[in-house]
Amino acid sequence: MTDVLVKPARARPAALTLSATAEQRIADLMARAPADAIGVKLSTPKRGCSGLAYSVDYVTQAAPFDEKIETAGGLFFVDGASVLYLIGSRMDWVEDDFTAGFVFENPNAKGACGCGESFTV
User: Fold this and answer.
1) What span, in angstroms and rounded, lies between the C-alpha atoms of 28 and 24?
2) pLDDT surpassing 80 at residue 120
3) What is d(CA 35, CA 23) in angstroms, rounded to the nearest whole number?
């Protein structure tokens, strides 16, 4: 009988990265979160002109296939059904004189609607 060498599992990179300002915004949201919230979750529901939209909401429990990303500000989840649309993306929080919101750099997006509310892959 021969010995089998088993390599330790390599850590899998997160589906997306968050900027420092996005992590800070998550911390701000969690500081004001409902008592039963365990984190913030990103999903891509079917919506808008192009088909998919980004949605960020509080989450009270993790679904089995959600990806969990630990940030300094709290737990951030990516919906398991949305991960394939988001691999390699970067999430940022941007504020200026007229708007404030999460902004996504998504290499999988092939197009977006004119108003910027939805995207297609």
Assistant:
1) 6
2) no
3) 20
Of 52, 54, 51, 70, the closest CA to residue 62 belongs to 70
**pLDDT tens, 62-77?**
898 999 988 888 899 9
User: What DSSP string runs through 45-107?
Assistant: -EETTTEE--EEEEESS--TT-EEEEETTEEEEE-TTTHHHHTTEEEEEEE-SS-EEEEEE-T
Among 87, 74, 66, which residue's Cα sits nearest to residue 16? 87
Question: Do residues 51 and 120 lie in contact, with contact meaning Cβ atoms separated by under 8 Å?
Answer: yes
- Burial string for 53-84 (b: 16+ CB within 10 Å, else e) reads bbebeebeeeeeebbebebebbbbbbbeebbe
Q: What is the pLDDT of residues 79-104, one digit of tens each?
A: 999 888 888 999 999 998 888 888 88
